Amino acid sequence: MPAATAPTVPTPEVTAAADAADADAMNARARSLLVPVADPEARPTPPPSVSPVLPGRPVADRPQVRAPGPQQGDENGVPCPWCSTPNRPDRHYCTRCAMPMTRTEDSSARHRPWWRRVLDFRNRETPWAGDRPRLRRTFDRILTWVVAAAVLSLLIWVGVSAPGWVQATRDHFAKRAPVAPDQFAASRSYPGHKPDLLFDKVNNTWWGPGVTQSGEGQWIEARFAEPTRLLDLIITPGTSTRADQLSQSALPHRIKVTITTKDGRTTTRNLTLDQSAGGQRRAFRVGEVTKVRFTLESAYGASASKQVAIAEIEFFGRSSANSS
């Protein structure tokens, strides 16, 4: 039977070495947990709250301004006509306001109107004491007269033009009413299409000059027995207002309108029409008209087999309801 083995006992050298290793590990761990702290620095010395300055010169007190008072012995003196301050009898100007002691009749007179003060160059108002009068130069006077002339011209122009402006305003807001001429005339007419068909208020009848191409130089005229104010004008080109019938005739393009007033003077206007069907309205503000002539100058679609045709010409004036 084998013999029993004795238990192993650690040697003292091994235990001491292990303790030394554990102590080194603990020291290393403690060093790793420490936070390095810098050495405290010395704080700078703060600057003084009041910096040193050089001694300055003493500043003298400002003088006090006092109002002038009455002189000795002036309590019973002559009062100033401007400020009522007593003055010595031998003074010619006041000790307080420096105005003359003698007040003339002109200075106490009633205030003159502005136009007399402007146009009176000799009797100018004397400036007060301490006021510097304005220097009057030649250029200033010329500029003043130029401005005055411009203002006067503007007023005259406004006065002359005002009636026209009033009439134009009334015409703009006036209600329109048709105006029929009393007589008609034409340079020539196509058979069966006389000039009175232009003013019959029917748009399926027409007038033609009876010549082919543009009919340049041919005219038609409307006459009024009494002078009439005309505001608008409507011209219907072609033989009717239907668009499918525009190609049946040439259409007027440019028309010269000659207007004759009751005093015999004539005015010329140029009308340009569009190549479209239906009536074409144009502004025609003329007063005291006795005769209007329309002269053809050019046409749309003119050819050797077509003549210019105009279906209707209508005049419009102010309605009698505007005066009520």
TrEMBL record:
Residues 1-76 are annotated as: Disordered. Residues 1-25 have a biased composition (Low complexity). Keywords: Membrane, Transmembrane, Transmembrane helix. Signal peptide: none annotated. The chain crosses the membrane at residues 142-166. InterPro entries: Fork-head_TF_regulator, Galactose-bd-like_sf, NADase_transloc. PANTHER family: DIADENOSINE 5',5'''-P1,P4-TETRAPHOSPHATE PHOSPHORYLASE (PTHR42746), DIADENOSINE 5',5'''-P1,P4-TETRAPHOSPHATE PHOSPHORYLASE 2-RELATED (PTHR42746:SF2). This is Zinc ribbon domain-containing protein. It comes from Streptomyces phaeoluteigriseus.
